[in-house]
């Protein structure tokens, strides 16, 4: 019969954090750079944790890395434990009215080239107010960000506002304009600015794999669905092949336009705009860091 688990120590928490990182990365090798320790040290930590818990957490060897059934249960239990620890830290922070803890943000890619840079400025202000704030950013499609906001893995997200979900709160930041582009190797490059959307009927285009506004859908309809991309960077890759046209935010395409590597089709007529919003979970617990970031974002008006 296995011995009951002893009280959790700081050392146990460090081992559990190593285990969670290895599980997220999928292997000891992939976790090395994230943890900043060697594979042999990770292996030693994992062995220590398995010994302290009295169970095998993962299989490792030539067949690859895989969690055991017990490992999956421990990972699930650790998520609840870490969330409880973070909740405790947040509540204590409120008592001290100090900024201390983690801020997990999910962003849609290619927002950093937006000239207004409201998110960057807000994060800079919060970091200047307290060096005890740890900011963790992950890049994901809007649908993934929404799911992770709802399940509590993310504190805040930023992405185009297309459809509002009842469980989330939206704070509009700015409008983002997108235009239809082709590369300098595309056959229509020289006359692109003189063409209308009717002239582009059936032309091979890259269709986004993320949600679009009704206005954007209408502009895509005359184009031929010749390729798909999950994000704006993927669209840019395919447009630059010279084989496709595709809609890109003007701030993101600007670098290639200035190098004469891209041009927009009839920029006065073929374009659409969408609002970028900062998004948080509705009815969330009070969190000083989130509140401060939102306050800074709203001051950028």
**CATH third-level topology of the largest domain:** D-Maltodextrin-Binding Protein, domain 2
If helices are DSSP runs of H or I spanning 4 or more residues, what is the number of helices? 10
CATH architecture of the largest domain: 3-Layer(aba) Sandwich
Major beta sheet, specifics? 7 strands, mixed
Low-confidence stretches: none
Question: Layout of SSEs?
Answer:
Layout: H1 10-25, H2 28-35, H3 39-53, E1 58-59, E2 66-67, H4 69-96, E3 101-107, H5 118-129, E4 133-139, H6 142-150, E5 156-160, E6 168-183, E7 204-208, H7 214-220, E8 224-229, H8 232-239, E9 246-249, H9 250-258, E10 262-264, E11 271-281, H10 288-299
Helix pairs in contact: 1-2, 1-3, 5-10
List keywords for this structure.
single chain; 301 residues; alpha/beta; D-Maltodextrin-Binding Protein, domain 2; 3 domains; seven-stranded mixed beta sheet; globular
